[in-house]
Design goal:
heterodimer, A: about 160 residues, alpha+beta, Ubiquitin Conjugating Enzyme, four-stranded antiparallel beta sheet, 4 helices, about 35% helix, about 15% strand, globular, B: about 300 residues, 3 helical TM bundles of succinate and fumarate reductases, six-stranded mixed beta sheet, 13 helices, about 60% helix, transferase (chain A), ubiquitin conjugating enzyme activity (chain A), peroxisome biogenesis (chain A), E2 ubiquitin-conjugating enzyme (chain A)
Chain lengths: ~160, ~300
């Protein structure tokens, strides 16, 4: 508990320092609870998520950093490795490939990379995965694009 | 117009993604978090059975395990008994090599009070820190693990405020908050060494998996619970400059007649050079581990 708190505090300071270096990620700690974080990440360019801003919720366990943070999308996203309803993310580093070498910041980077490089063979969203697996890139792109516009972009006017 | 289209399609998607049959509802709510919780519950249950580190047991307890089993193994255990007196088991949770190494090493320092060995390994640990920094690891990701190991090292040396007894060393080695952190320290050190000498380790890694050196470190070295192979042992032994003997107990029988037990000494690269600690003549490992396929325990020579 004490160890995780100390580590999170170091990450907090690191995040303040890296703000400028990584403008695609805005990681904020809850005012009253250092185990709760949210992040705003920018959809990577040349993907259907471009121009969107996606919100992630982090719940950090007491055994952190020996155990991974729990992360999910709060913003609706159409992606093979994100549960359409719960926002849960299928990413190895959040499960068995986790190690303390990762940080909340680098997890955000990994999630941005996952947005650009979906893994349709381990889908949490089968509809999305099936479009990619059947080679219907256009179908995948237009669905993903539509949800980006609906959920991740500020409404105009 | 576009918006209208969107809403319409939205409706279709909703019905397609949500699983309508009620009996699947529970599964839909059964997320990865639940699975991980279940995993840790199973692990906790297993933990009750075998601590991270067991008590010292006579070698006969090893033979007892195979009483109704392979005759070759029983023969080999008999041969082992000529050289070794006891065994200390570790939990088979994928971290057994590192936990065995941790206890063996600290116990050796506690019993030998070898200050020069402590000074030597501390210099190596500093080198490992620099290696990780030069590989781009942020200090705060690994420094807590380094600090905890150095703390244990100081406390097994007697004569200072933090000194601990053999019993206390056992208790700490069974305490998850100490043991896991030291294991993680070794994992960082191992990973750093492999990546620093990537061209040396690459062919061995290719022999094990189809991964690049970096992928291998990320997926098979750094995460807790990933089992150790000769690559890990070589790297840890080299990085810390600590020779390790591994005795192999398996069903393989040798050519003709007599049963023998193989061992392999992992001798750190460059340790044949005379060094400050003066033990330059012949490297004989003070750490002996017993390897049975998939698992490491500690062996005590007679």
């Amino acid at each position: 508990m004490q160890a995780s708190r100390a580590r999170l505090f170091k990450e907090y300071k690191e995040v303040q320092r890296e703000k400028v270096a990584d403008p695609d990620i805005q990681l904020v700690c809850d005012d009253s609870n250092i185990f709760k974080w949210t992040a705003l990440i920018k959809g990577p360019s040349e993907t259907p998520f471009e121009g969107g801003v996606f919100q992630l919720a982090f719940a950090v366990p007491e055994q952190y950093p020996l155990q991974p943070p729990q992360v999910r999308f709060l913003t609706k996203i159409f992606h093979p490795n994100v549960h359409f309803k719960t926002g849960e993310i299928c990413l190895d580093i959040l499960k068995n490939a986790w190690s303390p070498a990762w940080t909340l910041q680098s997890v955000c980077r990994a999630i941005i990379a996952l947005m650009a490089h979906p893994e349709p063979d381990s889908p949490l969203n089968c509809d999305s995965g099936n479009l990619l697996r059947s080679g219907d890139l256009r179908g995948y792109y237009s669905m993903a694009r539509m949800y980006t516009k609906l959920a991740a972009m500020p409404k105009k006017g | 117009m576009q918006n209208q289209d969107g809403v319409q399609v939205d409706g279709e998607v909703e019905s397609a993604t949500s699983v309508p049959t009620p009996e699947f509802d529970e599964w839909a709510n059964f997320g990865d978090q639940d699975i991980m919780q279940q995993h840790s519950a199973i692990r906790a249950e297993e933990a009750e059975k075998i601590p991270f580190l067991g008590d010292k047991e006579p070698l006969s307890s090893l033979a007892a395990e195979y009483q109704s089993g392979s005759a070759i193994l029983l023969e080999k255990i008999k041969v082992l008994g000529e050289q070794y007196a006891a065994i200390r088991r570790t939990r088979g949770d994928g971290n057994c090599f590192f936990r065995s190494f941790m206890f063996s090493y600290l116990e050796h320092i506690l019993e030998s009070q070898d200050q020069s060995e402590v000074d030597r390994i501390k210099a190596n640990v500093e080198q490992c820190r620099k290696t990780l920094q030069s590989l781009g690891y942020a200090d705060f990701t690994f420094e807590d693990f380094f600090a905890l190991f150095l703390e244990q090292l100081d406390s097994v040396l007697q004569g200072n405020e933090a000194s601990i007894s053999h019993d206390e060393l056992i208790l700490r080695s069974r305490d998850q908050s100490v043991s896991d952190y030291v294991v993680m320290f070794f994992r960082f050190v191992t990973s750093g060494e492999i990546r620093k000498r990537a061209e040396f380790f690459e062919p061995f890694i290719l022999g094990l998996t189809n991964a690049t050196v970096e992928q291998f470190c990320k997926s098979s070295v750094e995460p807790m619970g990933e089992e150790s192979d000769h690559v890990h042992i070589t790297a840890l032994s080299d990085a810390l400059g600590v020779p390790i003997r591994v005795v192999y107990l398996d069903r393989s029988s040798c050519d003709t007649g007599g049963v023998s037990v193989n061992h392999h000494d992992f001798v750190p690269a460059g340790s044949d050079l005379p060094n400050a600690s003066g033990c330059s003549e012949k490297v004989s490992p003070f750490i002996t581990l017993l390897y049975r396929p998939g698992h490491y325990d500690i062996l005590y020579p007679k």
